[in-house]
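It is worth pausing here to work through a concrete case rather than discussing structure prediction in the abstract. The textbook approach is simple: state the sequence, then state the predicted structure, then interpret. We follow exactly that order.
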Amino acid sequence: MNWAFTSSGVVTEMYAAGLLRGMLEIPSSSYQERALADFLAEAMVDLGFQTHIDVVGNVIGVIERGDGPTLMLLGHIDTVPGQLPVRSEDGKLYGRGAVDAKGPLAAMICAAAGAVDFPGRIVVIGVVEEETPGSRGAMAIRATHDRPDALIIGEPSGWSSVVLGYKGKLDLRYTVKCPATHPSNPAPKASELAVECWAALVDLLGPDVGHDVFARPGATLCQLNGDLTSATADISVRTPPGFDVDALVRKLHERLTAGKLEVLNSVAACRVGRANPAVRALVSGIRRLHAQPRLLVKTATSDMNTLAEVWDIPMATYGPGDSKLDHADTEHIQLSDFLRGINVLSIAISELALLPVGSDDPGVGAPLAERSLRCPT
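Step two, the predicted structure:
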């Protein structure tokens, strides 16, 4: 008997919680994901997937159940550094990655395994290096996989919320060297020029710059190292839809009197409408569990940005867990929310079974301008 499933083919709650705990007990900070990938490949085989690990380290599980649509469920297996003790307490499961994003990925695996009536192909992928500037795992998927008919990205949205979009991101590095000189010499010093670069960027972005509004850019001085002769500033700019990244970089170049400005990474903002079939399917799942769905846009960035650059298909981001706990030393997930997330995904998968195969219509509705919207009843 397979103890992972109930008689109806649904993954048991005990198995689901055990799978997530097993994932949390395996450290998998960026660039160190292989042990978790091996664990998941074996676990997905036990659940009926055909699995493999690709050349960059992504773990991929496929269930073929007919010639219907292809649904891709994609989350990331890497975490920020710093393993936390894994423990259960008061209905909560603590550990690094509990919400960002092992919880959402575990929910996807369990929901896909239990989707016995899905008439097509379900592909579940745990990608590497999402927490790094290059997003190498997602970049490899979009380069090597055929476009699916729908895509759900696994990130913590809260079990009763769906994320419609993310800001884009521009990562810059400014480096400058100056001749050695006395501190009292009026000539510019490297450390001063680095500070001036940051000040020029903030000035170019304008007085409304900030991370609290989706429609405006936000900037962060991530790292500043310098002395009189050499300095480096790493800067991240979160960009709204339609933002002209090239113009910003050009204008910043014009402001700099010395040094070198590099673009380390650039990904555009993405946002879908509430009429998007992936959004509708997830909203249906939330309503079926008697909750009022919330539609969100986020000021951060995810692998949804990377994939939306090349795939114009129904997509949305969803996953149990409170995103306020991302990267926190108290990171944990409510097990009841985790199990609700599996149920929502199971319903969404069933709804997406009706998608046409190979459709060119992404079903994108009117754009969102608000940060948070409640779905109409």
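Step three, interpretation. The chain has a mean pLDDT of 92. The CA atoms of residues 48 and 319 lie 22 Å apart.
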